[in-house]
Write a structure and sequence with these properties.
The structure is a homodimer of 437-residue chains. Chain A has 437 residues and is an alpha/beta fold. Chain A has 17 helices and twelve strands.
Chain lengths: 437, 437
């Protein structure tokens, strides 16, 4: 069986029309996907699906980058490809000319994620397992072979990674049972977008609590008075027993962040997310030291294992919010999950957008079963949006993700969606009155 | 006068056929440019030219990113655009949807550089000055208005930047005279590519010294024995009085870097360049502390002012090798030049490739005249390659860059080159026997 061709799609949803997904940095996202299907010559139609999440304009740039990278997989025998996923990763991230465009960051890395995740989707489908189960069943050596240890050996060696995985191996079965029975804890961002009017926040927050969520997130980083008003409204609506996190989406300088968080401390925030530039490791350390015991979280814009390594080495974050696309795909996600475990920092993946919840649930479940071994202080983000476009959408019940049962990485988009929201020519776009420029 | 249209080009040179430009990380670069011309309705044909440097495959991805960004300049009145270059920068780097693809890194930032540099080229041509002179003549307030202080205020405030510029203002005229009389010191990388056979190195190195260079650079990071042999050959050929720097192009882990540099210490290296990942600020600090007094240099892959800020805050580098494309263009280059001056770290810009020497000379000259005020320990990289394709190529005589006199940023490519090396259809490609895949 071979990868016969890679078919790419530019799929966009006109979400900016509703204010959903809005925050202080991203006022008008049109949730989008640069999507790729790796088709094989399997008579049963086996294919790998992958996407990288974007927020509108520029999705075509990611599609162009996917096209530039697919020669590394098209034509490859599937058995050989899946037998050496570490090798696949290295071919993609060290392509002798494309590497210049990163390295391992930005558009070329987002595109890498679409391909790498599609290969893992194909792998999981071939094994007839959901990705979390495939990862949890892989022997430690096989998992560690997928990790690129270049540039992180000073923080985590291959031997240390193996020891972490072996430590939890004996008790995996019982955690898997618990996961299947109880699901994995989620928190919700759906109630707190910055574009939502203040008057709607208390009811939305109560609805979330009534639905079973014990952890909510509110967007801040706008006008300081409005931030405080909105945070008080939400805290007032949910009471003291529910965790409330705040998300500033990178709008503050280091000094401003500390002052802003101190002003918001009265609402008892659990974590403050993206208080400043995702590139500012030293700045995060300064903020964390200043605002403790409020926790500092970041990761959705952290580009690779090298930056996470330093955030962990310096003790600059309390919560690791890795992103399944930003990091270039499953291999690097495994690396960061292992790094976080080494440093004892909980992984609470970034999700939302389109497809990120479908991806992230698998990573949290793998982390629970095979790496950290605990659900304590671990939550996977949930936003109730656009799931209807997936063949195997997430199921969140009582504030918890149910473990996916279908084979794959849950990222396959329904064919009718690929047509309807094809950009710019799909009817999902030309029937909108306000088509963005 | 308005920007009427932006015309993009994918220009590539088949340099991988000769081994020139080869190093331990980049064995086969085809030096390339994603190039943009901002055409105006000026009857005299005034236009701004800009490029971002790439090394082959993926140039089309950068061109796509330029196309995604040009709506921010096309249609703009030139006077308004040039009156608020800080505003232009912010529109480009905070585009509410494209920002997701970086932010301020990778492909979207490389593309930003092509546009920003084209606008500065247009500005300098309209003022009938070479860029270094335009920058040197701008009042401090005007220069500082171009800088984005978001995320760097904890290291450099607007007031501190103004003070730095005012400090050197009174003596600018005499430095300008000296620059025009003597030029600016260069160092050469032309003699030391890793793809060049050992036997050729001594003669190439001697030729460079005979041509007036007092500082050479050799690529290392290959087989450790070969590295040492090559370094000994070059040091033997040039004698002890000439500075010899080494460049590992990111191939080492942190621990390996320290060991490798210690092995090479016998050839008395001036600096070791890119010893590890450009993202590893903490790692650079560790290496610098371990290998002193050998200096640590990096920058050609450092993505923005936020990362340079931390390299400087932690004292992780001795030499700042900013890149005129990687950083997104002149505005961010000014920011980094000011940051480096604040921390007393010499700026020795990365150059080579295609067009980078043409760009970088202007930055070194501006830094000398208006910011650092000294040529001590400052050198601008020089590689004698592809200059014939420029309308106003660099002139390096006796190991020094002569100050450009023609208006603009020296980056305008000759029209016949744009045709001949258009990729993939130009005759510069189809007449090659070995056209890369």
């Amino acid at each position: 069986m071979r990868i016969e061709r890679a078919v790419t799609y530019d799929v966009r949803f006109p979400t900016s029309l509703s204010g959903a997904g809005s925050d202080a940095m991203n006022p008008d996202p049109d949730y989008s996907a640069a999507y790729v299907v790796l088709e094989t010559d399997d008579p049963g139609g086996l294919a790998g699906h992958g996407l990288t999440f974007t927020i509108g304009r520029g999705t075509e740039v990611c599609v162009a980058a996917i096209e530039a990278l697919v020669p590394h997989v098209v034509g490859a025998p599937v058995d050989e490809l899946l037998a050496d996923l570490g090798g696949l990763w290295k071919r993609l991230v060290t392509d002798s000319q494309l590497r210049w465009l990163g390295p391992e960051k930005g558009v070329i890395h987002l595109a890498t994620a679409a391909i790498v995740n599609a290969v893992w989707d194909l792998y999981a489908k071939r094994e007839r397992k959901p990705l979390w189960k495939l990862l949890s069943d892989l022997p430690p050596e096989r998992l560690v072979d997928c990790v690129d240890f270049r540039y992180i050996k000073d923080a985590l060696t291959r031997e240390e990674a193996l020891a972490l995985l072996r430590r939890s191996a004996a008790t995996k079965a019982e955690r898997e049972q618990r996961l299947l029975a109880e699901g994995f804890p989620a928190y919700t961002t759906s109630a707190g977008w910055i574009g939502y009017p203040e008057a709607t926040l208390p009811a939305l927050a109560r609805e979330a609590v009534d639905a079973g969520f014990s952890h909510l997130k509110l967007k801040v980083g706008g006008d300081p008075e409005a931030d405080l008003r909105r945070a008080r409204l939400v805290r007032g609506a949910i009471g003291p027993g529910i965790r409330l996190s705040l998300d500033a989406n990178q709008v503050w300088n280091v000094g401003d962040a500390v002052a802003a968080i101190e002003r918001l401390a009265e609402v008892d925030p659990y974590w403050i997310e993206e208080p400043t530039s995702p590139d500012d490791i030293v700045g995060h350390k300064h903020i964390k030291d200043a605002v403790a015991p409020i926790k500092v979280a970041t990761g959705e814009h952290v580009q690779n294992r090298v930056v996470f390594k330093q955030l962990l080495q310096l003790g600059a974050i309390d919560i690791c919010q890795l992103d399944c696309c930003r990091l270039g795909g499953v291999n690097e996600v495994i690396a960061v999950v292992l790094l976080a475990a080494k440093f004892g920092v909980p992984v609470c993946p970034h999700a939302g957008g389109v497809g990120l919840c479908e991806y992230a649930q698998h990573i949290s479940m793998f982390d629970y079963v095979s790496v950290s071994g605990t659900m304590d202080d671990r939550v996977c983000e949930f936003v109730d949006h656009l799931h209807e476009h997936f063949v195997d959408p997430v199921r969140v019940v009582g504030g918890r993700y149910a473990a996916p049962a279908a084979p794959g990485y849950s990222i396959e988009i329904r064919p009718e969606t690929l047509s309807e929201f094809a950009f710019p020519d799909g009817p999902g776009w030309w029937t909108q009155e306000e088509v963005p420029a």
